[in-house]
Design goal:
It holds the Pfam family PDH_N. By secondary structure, the protein is α/β, with parallel strands linked by helices. It has ten helices and eight strands. Strands 3-2-1-4-5-6-7-8 form an eight-stranded mixed sheet, sandwiched between helices.
């Protein structure tokens, strides 16, 4: 299988590594990026090669690992190079799926979102099989062979979820960090210590990746509104919010929100040069 990965950052390298390691003989993989040094480093890391963004070559599958804000343009620019299929690992789904439908109506189309930074792989990978076929199934088999858990979703469900688990979560963590400035470490409680570790995780990433997430998904306002509800509540109203929050948490884990038991169920360069960030951050 011949693969072109557009975007030579962390997620592009993850995609290349995942596809190469799952095949014997290895996949013929090429990287394209405006930053030729990044493309060369990615190719060296996975045993691939470098091609120009304007290459005339065709590939069985084109994998887009570009920033969320430029994915529509990337689909349009590289659709003709995908002879059989296109996939993306950008971290947003409605935009790439819609663009791929427009520009690749007769080819296989799948959108993926690895819900982790590449250095934390393997993990959960959200999947939209918009127009599946043998090539995209081979890609998904390679993702699963890398130890990842894939699960089906829709573009709408995915992007709505990201408003909470990415934009909302990051807002809450950064707001706590800003409000905790100047508090000595000796005053830490078990809860605040855990929050401080989350702050280090978020602020240890790439600012432009988090900026793009906040710009792509709503969710910050919902956290701000919830914080105001807590701040304004007293007495019984606070206890009701406390119980409401606990019920939401148990329900999200698959547990019973009434009895409190657990259930048994279960990014890139801003200038568009390549995916150097952590879409699953």
């Amino acid at each position: 299988m011949e693969v072109l990965v557009v975007g030579s950052g962390a997620m592009g390298r993850w995609a290349g590594r995942t596809l190469v390691s799952a095949r014997a003989p290895p996949t013929d993989i090429a990287f394209a990026d405006r930053d030729l040094a990044a493309a060369s480093a990615a190719a060296d890391a996975v045993g691939g090669r470098v091609v120009g963004l304007d290459t005339a070559e065709n590939f069985d599958v084109v994998c887009l690992a570009v920033p969320m804000g430029v994915v529509r343009e990337a689909v349009a620019a590289h659709a003709d190079r995908a002879s059989r299929a296109m996939v993306d690992v950008t971290g947003v789904m409605a935009d790439p799926v819609a663009a791929m439908r427009d520009h690749l109506p007769d080819r296989e189309r799948v959108s993926l979102h690895p819900l982790f930074a590449p250095e934390n792989a393997p993990g959960n990978v959200a999947v939209v099989r918009d127009a599946p076929g043998p090539v995209t199934e081979e890609v998904l088999d390679a993702v699963a062979a890398g130890g990842n858990h894939t699960f089906e979703t829709t573009p709408e469900e995915h992007d709505t979820a990201m408003e909470t688990v990415q934009a909302g979560a990051h807002t809450a963590i950064l707001a706590y960090a800003l409000s905790a400035a100047g508090v000595r470490e000796e005053f830490a409680t078990p809860v605040s210590r855990d929050l401080s570790e989350l702050v280090e995780t978020v602020t240890g990433g790439t600012p432009r990746v988090y900026r793009e997430i906040q710009g792509s998904f709503e969710g910050a306002d919902a956290v701000a509104d919830a914080a105001h509800r807590v701040a304004d509540a007293d007495g019984d109203a606070f206890e009701q919010l406390y119980e409401e929050a606990g019920n939401h948490a148990r329900r999200n884990r698959g547990g019973n929100a009434d009895d409190g038991t657990d259930g048994t169920g279960g990014a890139g360069n801003v200038d568009g040069t390549g995916g150097t960030g952590e879409p699953g951050a």
